[in-house]
Amino acid sequence: MAAPDAPVERHVHPEADEILEQRALTSTLNSLLVYGKAAHYNLTKPRLTALSRLSERHRDLLAPFYTDHLAAIDHAIDINAEFLKLVARYGANEFEAPQDLREWEGATSLQLDQTRSSIKQVYRDWSAEGAAERGVCYGRVIRELNNLYIPERRSEVRVLVPGAGLGRLAYDIACEGYVSQGNEFSYHMLILSNFLLNHTTSESQFTIYPFLHSFSHTSTATNQLRAIRIPDKCPATFHASPASNFSFTAGSFAEIYANIPDETDKWDVITTVFFLDTAHNVLEYIDVISQALKNSDGTGYWINFGPLLYHFEEEQNSSSAVAGTPSDVDKQDGISIELPLDYLISIVEKCGFVFEKLETGIKTTYAADERAMGNWVFDSVFWVARKTPSGFQASSLSS
């Protein structure tokens, strides 16, 4: 996905079932289309029903605030829904979904949950209010890149961003003058990033309400319903980086960058942010990173930031594909290898990396509402590791 106005380069495993692929795509698109209906049904309708069952005294105590607040939430849901319908329309066209919506797969409850969380990720990556949170992780990565390479060299430096999500880090790296490529697996992220990178035309073009879905830890009704304008930076009007410096691939990181010859021994830097713990087998990720980095002169760098909240820890015995993602799932789907940080660091070193910087305990949030009464806070790790010559051996890759 060169920015702006270039398609996503899709890589589908040769054995992937195209029917399953289409089902995953269309069910994700459907989750965007039916967001509004589902949100009204799941958020405001049950609360209005609960209100009607209260005693008259309790209803009087809540009125008119509660009904007015729920009406305002319904209005905000409608605004979110219009934005997501627009995203789905562009996504259906560019990902070549069937024109007849009757051929689309229905949305699952998991995909609807992912749609709701995606709205908060748009807030994190593409709003001015998300800048402080981005600065803790993306800012660190970009500062290290700029410490490694002077401006005059950056147009020759190739940076890969696996797990690119909505594309903000990969885009910001391109804006610094590097050759940047994002890679993403989730259809939710691919469809939304395609829209944000290629089809927004001005800053603050759209309004979203990312905090309306939670009634807990809410200090005021106004905070729950505050509007966020996006994007804070518009790729279509920002010309600091030529379009040819920015691309996007869709598909499994392990499948693309381990199995396509052109992607090996190619990248000067690989940046992983909130990514390592998404692996079924983190050892495979390390192998692929090592293989993809330039190998000949010891100048390939791996910059990593994030916690170790292993995504598949609770699904150790499950072999089902994750809903809403392409069907070319990790070939080791069904297992989960969770390593403590000290073991992980040791294995990275055994795989031919030398740590040039290592920081732990960095307080980090993810798509957090800074005005909420409670948020998850991670103790994240940050490192800059240099790949030593011949640090990767082909035999170490998983079969």
Automatic annotation (TrEMBL):
Top-rank EC class of the record's enzyme: transferase
Top-level taxonomic group: Eukaryota
UniProt key word Isomerase: no
Keywords per UniProt: Methyltransferase, S-adenosyl-L-methionine, Transferase
GO BP terms in the entry: methylation
Example of a GO MF term: carnosine N-methyltransferase activity
Pfam families, alphabetized: CARME
EC number: 2.1.1.22
Family (UniProt): Belongs to the carnosine N-methyltransferase family.
Protein name as catalogued: carnosine N-methyltransferase
Taxonomic source organism: Lipomyces starkeyi NRRL Y-11557
